[in-house]
Design brief:
repeat, 34 strands, disulfide bond, Jelly Rolls, ConA-like_dom_sf, 3 domains, Sperma_CUB_dom_sf, seven-stranded antiparallel beta sheet, Laminin_G
Length: about 450
């Protein structure tokens, strides 16, 4: 048999404590309602109380019911419940019959006030409100606005929309860059996501990207987390001039990135790597180029390097055949490797070695061709002020179609341009879209 005291306790839990009977409190949790809830509340009420929790914490208000009288146009409140942050003096007023989103204070002290006017709502008979509250740790967070570069805390941290946990503004356009410690990968977890939803995220949206991944998020809920590789993670937050919402809170942390030893990427024809060679001042008598590729594309550019005067080096796929060209300044030497079509969707290993004017090309570990460049020059001069190298394509496809397929184990004279690009080395830039990873063996 249930005791009278237990029945009273259950009644209190279901209905919440009458706001007009409450005194200021330091309780970290509570359940509060309008007078007489869930029945019609009385007229001419003016009640308030203060919640104070431990310094360093915030207060989350979660509304369970909302039915307070407002005008027909929903522009003004006749009866209302107001939450005021006593540190920032920010005020938020609620009325109507739409359940509000959670409110999170910026400080540890808020005042909650209930007001009803002198008139009866007539046939509407609004039932009032009920909410629960709880204290949470006041997380130290970094806003994506203003846009800037931010060195991530080695122990991780939090990134939020501007003004969080209050609503973000209209016409926001912020690019925030998280600098990642070398050799680390970044794991992103969504603590809260409340951004205006539109199919395709055409209105408000958050774009998170790195050298290898890109993701666009909008809507409400807790999206699945993501892992981003590279020494920079970019957060681009855009909003329109209409609806605003609470925004987002993201938790990030760093862990060792064992995938840097695996440079397998699968370009889709809309990206390439540009390597700035101007600081390297390369003047080489020998070259050693090795990589593996697979594709079904018949013709594309795999590698192009150019430097002083007419010096250049180029590797292409032409009608399914591998073609290598080099000019040391006194004439071009070219090898088109005779073989079965290499655009069969299978992995193929390429090794190109140059010693002075003599060049040897191996495909699938078989000697496929040897050529000597004309003239007397024996060194490839890549010391020009505009010396550049491209991998998997080039601007405006000026040296051939961009590569579509997969590349791995790409090494040029003991340098690994794909690995350096994935790590975010400033001399290695990925244009224009991230390289999807393939993690092939």
């Amino acid at each position: 048999m249930i005791s009278v005291s237990l029945l009273c306790l259950l009644f209190t839990i279901i209905e919440g404590a009458n706001i007009c009977n409450l005194r200021d409190t330091t309780n970290p949790t509570g359940d509060v309602s309008s007078p007489n809830y869930p029945r019609n509340y009385p007229i001419s009420q003016q009640c308030s109380f203060t919640i104070t929790v431990t310094i360093g914490k915030s207060i989350v208000i979660s509304f369970k019911a909302m039915d307070l009288e407002q005008d027909e146009d929903e522009n003004a409140c006749y009866d209302s419940v107001e939450i005021k942050d006593l540190v920032t003096n920010d005020k938020t007023e609620y009325c109507g019959n739409k359940l509000p989103e959670d409110f999170t204070s910026k400080s540890n002290e808020i005042q909650i006030s209930f007001t009803s006017d002198f008139s009866d709502a007539g046939e509407l008979k609004p039932t009032g409100f009920r909410f629960t509250y709880r204290a949470i740790a006041n997380i130290k967070r970094t806003s994506v606005c203003p846009g800037r570069e931010f060195i991530g805390n080695k122990d991780g941290g939090y990134i939020s929309s501007p003004n969080y946990p209050l609503n973000y503004g209209n016409n926001v356009n912020c690019m925030f860059t998280l600098i990642v410690p070398a050799g680390k990968k970044t794991t992103i977890e969504f603590v809260e996501m409340m951004v205006e939803y539109e199919p395709g995220c055409r209105n408000d949206r958050l774009n998170i990207s790195s050298a290898t991944e890109s993701r666009i998020i909008c809507g409400q809920g807790s999206p699945k987390g993501s892992v981003f590789h590279g020494v920079k993670v970019f957060f681009h937050f855009l909003t329109n001039r209409q609806t605003t919402k609470k925004g987002f809170l993201i938790k990030y942390h760093f862990t060792d990135d064992e995938t840097y030893s695996n440079d397998c990427v699968c370009p889709r024809g809309n990206s390439y790597i540009r390597v700035d060679l101007t600081q390297k001042k390369l003047l080489r008598h020998t070259d050693d180029i090795r990589f593996e590729f697979k594709t079904t594309q018949s013709s594309s550019l795999l590698l192009h390097a150019m430097g002083r005067h007419r010096d250049f080096l180029r590797v292409k796929l032409v009608q399914g055949q591998l073609k290598f060209s080099v000019d040391l300044g006194t004439g071009k030497g070219t090898i088109t490797v005779p073989s079965r079509a290499l655009n069969d969707g299978q992995w193929h290993f390429v090794e190109i070695t140059r010693n002075g004017r003599r060049v040897k090309v191996n495909v699938d570990r078989r000697v496929a061709g040897i050529v000597e460049t004309p003239g007397i020059f024996t060194k490839l001069d890549l010391r020009a002020p505009n010396a550049l190298m491209y991998v998997a394509g080039s601007p405006r496809r000026q040296h051939g179609s961009n590569f579509v397929g997969c590349l791995k184990n790409f090494v040029i004279d003991n340098r690994r341009p794909i690995v350096d690009a994935l790590r975010g080395d400033p001399a290695h830039t990925v244009y224009f879209n991230p390289f999807p990873r393939c993690f092939a063996t």
